[in-house]
Q: What sequence folds into this?
């Protein structure tokens, strides 16, 4: 019986309302705590990582090998329990090797998928398209192999785990001058590629500082198939070697056409030459080509050889350098996730920025103040139809 007989209809509704609101507040409280104290009986939501690259088109060889390395890393991370008790999930988008497409697909990853980090293209130009979007959204973007210096200059959310163009341009100039004793080098450059032009600038500065001369420069447009006119012009001025930084699809044709014209001199490239297609297209003409890589399958360390075995068992073929770099990229993201206070993008970015001596397949990786990896490089040569170790260069 109510204490006040004049209020029997009010007391029960008030009590019920208070009980309802208490339960409602408790429910919201549980929802807010779900990220930190998950229900062990429920299936945990995956941590979404974006990936964009050239899975089709003329750069598909590069993009597909990048994707394979990333895929293997995610599978192995999940097989060992995931990160913070949650699996990783790779959300892929194909830029089809087309200029402008990367910005479109990265917008999807950011708005539709709401990924916490993005693995960028191996191509510097494509990363320049997508990087500003990631920077504006506050989502860390890590490229396995974009070597153009301007990529990480976009902002503090943009990283790379490969060496940058200034380093590889410098070491190729040193290799040409000291190891090959070259004095007169000509350039054959892709006029449409910031990567090609940037490498040439660094090579020229270092090579001339070492007492060499760049005595001629020829250019072509990306997608060209015939380089005979440019090669003939370089042959006519008596170059001792040709530096042709570009990508493997043009590199193989350049090598073959150079040999057809009687140019038996050394042919020098950048890391964009590293793909089986360089030898498949160039054939025997590829012998005598030299270029820097981020990873050598000839490295005898147990970690390298074990990675080769796992990759081959998964995909039925050996990895390339971008495969190993992509593998390290995903492993480094996982490492940052484990160390961070949360899975918020800013927390991930902060941990990536202080990465020091991360033991990757491609070597020890330390991020400098500009979010560029400090690490060693390998120079390989093509001989008898295979890539062979020539020299290890430390930073």
A:
């Amino acid at each position: 019986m109510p204490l006040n007989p004049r209020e029997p209809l009010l007391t029960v509704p008030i009590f019920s309302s208070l009980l309802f609101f208490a339960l409602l507040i408790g429910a919201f409280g549980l929802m807010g705590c779900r990220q930190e104290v998950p229900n062990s009986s429920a299936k945990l939501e995956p941590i979404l990582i974006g990936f964009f690259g050239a899975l089709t088109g003329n750069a598909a060889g590069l993009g597909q090998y990048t994707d394979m390395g990333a895929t293997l890393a995610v599978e192995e991370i999940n097989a060992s329990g995931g990160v913070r008790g949650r699996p990783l999930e790779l959300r892929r988008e194909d830029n089809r090797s087309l200029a402008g497409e990367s910005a479109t697909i990265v917008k999807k990853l950011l708005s539709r998928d709401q990924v916490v980090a993005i693995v960028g293209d191996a191509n510097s130009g494509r990363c320049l398209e997508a990087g500003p979007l990631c920077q504006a959204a506050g989502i860390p973007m890590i490229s396995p192999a974009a070597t153009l210096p301007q990529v990480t200059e976009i902002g503090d959310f943009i990283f790379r785990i490969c060496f940058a163009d200034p380093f590889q341009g410098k070491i190729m100039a040193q290799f040409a001058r000291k190891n090959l004793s070259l004095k007169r080098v000509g350039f054959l450059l892709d006029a449409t590629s910031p990567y090609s032009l940037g490498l040439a600038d660094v090579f020229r500065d270092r090579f001339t500082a070492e007492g060499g001369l760049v005595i001629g420069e020829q250019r072509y447009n990306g997608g060209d198939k015939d380089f005979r006119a440019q090669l003939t012009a370089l042959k006519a001025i008596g170059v001792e070697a040709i530096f042709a930084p570009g990508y493997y699809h043009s590199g193989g044709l350049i090598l073959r056409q150079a040999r057809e014209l009687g140019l038996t001199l050394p042919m020098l490239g950048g890391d964009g030459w590293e793909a089986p297609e360089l030898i498949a297209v160039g054939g025997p003409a590829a012998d005598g080509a030299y270029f820097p890589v981020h990873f050598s399958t000839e490295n005898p360390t147990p970690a390298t050889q074990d990675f080769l075995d796992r990759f081959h068992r998964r995909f039925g073929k050996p990895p390339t350098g971008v495969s190993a770099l992509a593998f390290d990229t995903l492993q480094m993201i996982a490492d940052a996730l484990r160390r961070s206070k949360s899975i918020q993008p800013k927390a991930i970015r902060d941990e990536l920025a202080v990465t020091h001596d991360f033991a990757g397949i491609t070597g020890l990786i330390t991020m400098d103040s500009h979010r560029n990896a400090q690490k060693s490089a390998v120079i390989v040569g093509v001989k008898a139809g295979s890539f062979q170790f020539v020299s290890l260069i430390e930073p």
